[in-house]
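Can you give me the bound-state structure? Components:
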Amino acid sequence: MSSGIEQVRSLADQAYKYGFTTEIEAEAAPKGLNEDIIRFISAKKGEPEWLLEWRLKAYRLWLTQEEPVWPRLHHAPIDYQDSYYYSAPKRKDGPKSLDEVDPKLLETYEKLGVPLQERARLAGVAVDAVFDSVSVATTYREKLKEHGIIFTSMSEAVREHPELVRKYLGSVVPYSDNYFATLNTAVFTDGSFVYVPPGVRCPMELSTYFRINAEKTGQFERTLIIADKGAYVSYLEGCTAPMRDENQLHAAVVELVALDDAEIKYSTVQNWYPGDAEGKGGIYNFVTKRGACRGRASRISWTQVETGSAITWKYPSCILQGDDSVGEFYSVAITSNYQQADTGTKMIHIGRNTRSRIISKGISAGHADNTYRGLVRVQPKADGARNFTQCDSLLIGDLCGAHTTPYIESRNPTARVEHEASTSKISEDQLFYVRQRGLSEEEAVSLIVNGFCREVLQQLPMEFAVEAQKLVAISLEGSVG
Amino acid sequence: MTTMSGPNEGTGSRDGAGAPLLAIRDLHATVAGREILKGIDIVVPAGEVHVVMGPNGAGKSTLSYVLAGRDGYEPTQGEVVYQGQDLLAMKTEERARAGIFLAFQSPVEIPGVTGVNFLKTAVNAQRRARGESELDAMQFLKLARRKAKELDVGEEMLRRSVNSGFSGGEKKRYEALQMTLLEPRLMILDETDSGLDFDALKTVAQAVNGMRSPDRSILMITHHQRLLDLIAPDCIHVLIDGRIVSTGDRSLAHELEKSGYAQFAGQAA
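Here's the bound-state model for the whole set.
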């Protein structure tokens, strides 16, 4: 892994380089949220009746729910009627191949550094790109098909693989789960679907790139990944959005299912627009991610690098149902300026000898607030369950905050739960030492912070680790001195 | 006045020596509002090894920090000319890139940054500043391994986090390794000999001696004799209470060893 320093240099002055918008004619449903909009979305996608019913059931429940107040987050009330719930790049018929995709769209992805075409093969990455509400192109589908792997947009999965979708959709995150997940269930527009058949090791990294382009558009994608018995898949999602003064809502749901001896690695590099230095604009990121280790000795590992968004509210979790299953959560959350993050995980130990590991690194700079919130629950039957949690916070400057809120509930006397936490500052000693060797102050901070995050960053697939290091550096630009 | 030269004479330039690499003139500096350096004059010609000796609290480490440009160590009077440039106007990293290397008395830990990554980042930052091409990972690793072997620095130290869990001796060896890789023009050794066993001391001395050249100078800060037996200095400066009270050749060090600093006590007041 190369150091982040070289890249910082070349990327200096690019505060948020993904802030451009793309002029593409979009087809949108009218603003606002009601049953007609939901019917419109469902009809647009040619969904079966059961799915529409599920959406409506969620919508009706959502109307009775309240936004959670327990996170350490502050924002003006969200006007859910002032947002578009469906926006799709306009086109005559669906693209049959990449050649038919609007070149402007491809250009956008190129600017974002998404390896959509031949570059994808070189990088060994198969990409599903979600632009506003619809999935635009999925590369490498043919190659994956040879292995029996399904990697497609959620809309297409509903049409092509209804039995799989019906069996697993909502089985990990039920429609009634929480305010934002329920909203997502009602209005989700697209997302990725992955199925890896028994005994198959997915030969390449799968990747989805999310992009919010249109104005006043919420993005509600829904992702479902199933690793059948003995299967393995590594999946990465990246996210960006244009700079806009108003806040945009992103409320996604991701469900993972791992059967016997299966393994899913899910990595996120989240770089949604964080708002400007005064805290104006930015994405509100309210996301529900959960994985079920249903089978024996199954394994789910979440790795997240959260650098963007004005607000981050997310707790990628593992339900450790199968005996000997393993859940992992590796997180770097960086907040600067006026960003707020309340993030962590839930590890629910149900099966015997289940193990979980939580490594969380929170970095705060400027006026930002960064909270780790994590639950470790050991159910009565989870004999021999083990958890290890380590939460480290790093503060830059003296106007920011770091908070650690662990919840530990053990109902089994044989369980062992360990929690370690630390809070530190980048010391003047460290900065002087590194600068005395020829690094500028920003380069020094980037090096020290990257070191602080190393345990997490090295969990990322190689080709994304470098990008993540760059992001760490860029996110902290201007936060020292 | 003793038999040795006074503070403002004989600043070390001897006949035949080249142009000074470093000239400190009437340097005053404060730390937290208190004046620690009260008028330092030292001239170090290129190619020479100068030693600053003095009791605890005399201002030795302050001098090295002021020269390296540490925040909080404020020069208030006087000047420092390094390679013809106004050193005090340069940022810490600019001084480093211009070839000033400070070997720290107590190098700080940097968790998660591997030894080899730190070295590579530093070497490439300096190469970039000089307009040279950066070394790629393989080139660098080869170079670092060779230098590490010469200095008896174990390879596992390159993989471990910088200074984390290093013994005193390991830290100093790692400093010496950085020094040989960065190839500075002016090496400031701040109490490098403190707390070292003889083997580690020999390694450090070997690194320093191996780097001696006509265009490179060394400013060694110490209150021990030991290192002077291994690195033959050209000039000794005695620092007491923020002032250079005496400057002379190696015999001054021997004098100090016999009689201690008490003989200068009156002058410093």
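A couple of observations. The interface with chain A takes residues 68, 70-72, 91-93, 95-97, 101-102, 104, 107-108, 110-113, 117-118, 120-122, 124-126, 128-129, 134, 137, 161-162, 178, 182 of chain B (CB under 8 Å). The first helix of chain B runs from residue 60 to 68.
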